[in-house]
Specification:
It contains six helices and no strands. By secondary structure, it is mainly α.
């Protein structure tokens, strides 16, 4: 659920979304389909963790501790066997 919130946070801002799409190489029209894939959602959290200002802004917006994003990312790793 946190990864979906993070994706929505990114998508709300055209600049953030453009940067995310540029870094992932995913065309905008494929985001909805990709969002159903655990690997993509883990990538959303990785993207957050790789940009401290984005991470802090998201955590503030969601009312969570930034470390919750790292914990959520770790949970995805456990899900896919890594």
């Amino acid at each position: 659920m946190l990864a979906i919130q993070a994706l929505a946070f990114i998508a709300e801002d055209p600049e953030k979304l453009s940067r995310f799409l540029g870094m992932t190489g995913i065309p905008p029209e494929e985001i909805r389909t990709a969002a159903g894939e655990p690997g993509f959602l883990a990538g959303v959290l990785e993207h957050m963790l790789g940009d401290e200002s984005l991470l802090v802004a998201f955590a503030d917006s969601a009312g969570i501790d930034p470390t919750a994003v790292a914990r959520a990312r770790s949970a995805f790793g456990k899900m896919d066997g890594t």
